[in-house]
């Protein structure tokens, strides 16, 4: 089997969310030439997403440091507090585990890591996300190291391995099911003559649906702060791009948005659709169709070699050319991986060329104060010849109208 051939995650007992240990060996091997290129003896990161990427250890971050040190020889060491040792072992973390007693502790919590690293000296990369407090602790523990801020691991995460893509695909499948579950809840209320659901009702329902699928169909569910669910907003509330679900009850004529997502194996997908309840007005159709056209152009623009800034410009130009540029509030999209939002950014200020294996969101939107917001989003896999939407729920207005 070649280095980039996917090891299937599907077993007779269902989909397993944990990557095989050898996948982390390949991930760590990816980092070594980047260390050499930047003239670094090692890389240290305490970013929770980096830690899980390099070692397979997922945790809820807090005041106790958790970090991975990967040196130029390929040795990976995972630092955890003693209370997390069993947790790291049970997750089959792909690194040597060292622990500190407690935080703040009588000893610098990074001292055990320094001892395990031996005679580490010279230039060592450190994530740009590290706090000043933790950097000071590192400087005190490693007295012969010159700490060099780097986004080396962040950049390595841009292009997904086949096993990671498989997890994103499963997250997309679940996201599509949640979108349908939200629509079904509304249709059931209409058919049964019950009051329409509130934003909060919908948010709770779709979240339970997604999480239920995971625990019902998956093995080794990787628990992070967000498993499945999202934002639901209707009417004027949806004109706030990241508004939170409220007790507002849907009513005839509302534009409403299901902005949903899921994380399988810690790897995210988002899928968003804008719906109309009842018969759309010409104004609602114009807004929705314009965003749909922009999203379609955005899909065409997402391809290998296209710079993120260019893709963003092509996508949003459709909205501006339609005379609705005053309602733009954000970029075309962003990278997706172990973070729901991560680089690269599909925005004017990011010149990064897209590459096959990247996953990015394609989510143009317009927001009309006092009326509603309109956004359509898919998580897109960049392929050798273009891009593929991982989320597949229908996008046209005709498919997103719920008659009363």
TrEMBL record:
Coiled coil: none annotated. It holds the Pfam family Creatinase_N. This is Peptidase M24. The lineage of its organism: Bacteria, Bacillati, Actinomycetota, Actinomycetes, Micrococcales.
